[in-house]
Amino acid sequence: MEQSIKRIDASFSVTGQIEQSDLQSLAALGFASVICNRPDHEGGPEQPEHTAMQQAAQALGLSFAYLPVATSGATPGQVQQLRELLDELPKPVLAYCRTGNRSAKLFEAATQGTREARQYDVVVVGGGSAGISVSASLLKRNPALRIAVIEPSTEHYYQPAWTLVGGGAYDIKNTVRPTVAVMPKGAVWVKASLCAFAPQRKVVLLSDGSELGYQQLIVCPGLELAWENIEGLEETLGKNGVTSNYRHDLAPYTWELVRSLKGGKALFTQPGMPIKCAGAPQKAMYLACDHWRKRGALDAIKVEFNLAGAVLFGVPAFVPPLMKYVEAYKAQLAFQSNLVKVDGPARTAWFDVTDAKGGVTCVAKTFDLLHVVPPQQAPDVIRRSELADKAGWFETDPATLQHPRYPEIFALGDVCNTPNAKTAAATRKQVVVVAENLLALRKGVTLPKRYDGYGSCPLTVENGKVILAEFGYGGKLLPTFPLDPTVPRKSAWLLKATLLPWFYWQGMLKGREWFTDCKPD
């Protein structure tokens, strides 16, 4: 319950639909009042009526108010009603509707003009790879810019190396640094979470109750890993042979499992697209198989790769060389097989398997090692925003990386709905497009840069060799070097394991833009 509560300021929070059983937890969390903004019967008979909720709340000593708001939005009268309630009700207050979105917007309207926003030239949402890099690039071009970077985390990660950690080829300690150490000089670090957008007013609302005003906004908070969408998974991660290279604390456990496994069954999974680094799920399998082969254990281990999709890799040119490794490792491919449930102590996983006619069957499979890649989605604050597309991703022009309805807003990185691979390499080229276009917009001139969809996926097919897959929109091959990109190479391994991590910390995050030209048709 506590995880779903969004704090707007010190005295007001929002959440989605709650039940009577949640009220005791809310009282224990210190809330003094509850406001229901969801009309009765909106969600059918399962939705508790406000009268029952009010009685249960008052029995626990909570104040309760019913202020129903239609999905079409609040009326001026309802905005005034909330102002009056905020004056009357004991604090802190929790308001709820179906998702929390209406409650947040109603609060924004009721408090508009009562809070003074700190003003910046550019506000950057997210201090990950995209946010730090684009801030550094902007300041390199114009050190006078007033830039604020919104980032709640005190640690910054180099995530592309986690696959290597899981394969025993990289030290996990070298993948993390303090956020303060990578924040560009000249940028203001705002250590808070984003709660809501108010694009008409050109402000964003933060978890500490403050607002930031902007002339231009850059949205790059990354994506969310939806572990909770697989039944039983969160309870068993990091034990019972269940692991994932998609989490910093779990990648070392992957290597622990790989090097200790002498026989049995190893399952690797890949959810439906889009996901962060689409090649990473199979890279975990290749490095594990390479280790088992070199230790003479591969023949005793049954390896199976379960993919929710129907193809091994989205760019056809790379499928034949990858299939050679699949066959060499004697791995079985299970297409259209999507992980839906895990029982760690029983060492059993369940998959929804779709047949050629579209029928779905739930199939149980036992395992000794299970490497899970979770479903992935845009952050909640993006999904419930008017700036998102129908699928919940941030709506972005695929060439200019502008929002189509708010030209002062740009986006880059994993949160975008652009049809490119969600990789750090894609971000590296997007940074230049956003920086150049944003500064051109500030000058009132034509936007000069176009993003070609470039992304790179260094496919670690064995310890010491990589297929360097580089491609753009439509699967067009965009190799940086004049070599056959489908051939596994030791030089590409050196690039992946040594040069790229150094370049990330010393180049990309510092605004150095080597090999970043985009070449659209």
UniProtKB/TrEMBL annotation:
Residues 80-136 form the Rhodanese domain. The keyword Transferase applies. Keywords: Transferase. GO terms for molecular function: transferase activity. InterPro entries: BLH_phosphatase-like, FAD/NAD-bd_sf, FAD/NAD-binding_dom, Prot-tyrosine_phosphatase-like, Rhodanese-like_dom, Sulphide_quinone_reductase. PANTHER family: SULFIDE:QUINONE OXIDOREDUCTASE, SULFIDE:QUINONE OXIDOREDUCTASE, MITOCHONDRIAL. This is TIGR01244 family sulfur transferase. The lineage of its organism: Bacteria, Pseudomonadati, Pseudomonadota, Gammaproteobacteria, Pseudomonadales. SUPFAM superfamilies: FAD/NAD(P)-binding domain. It comes from Pseudomonas bubulae. It comes from the Bacteria. Signal peptide: none annotated. The keyword Transferase applies.
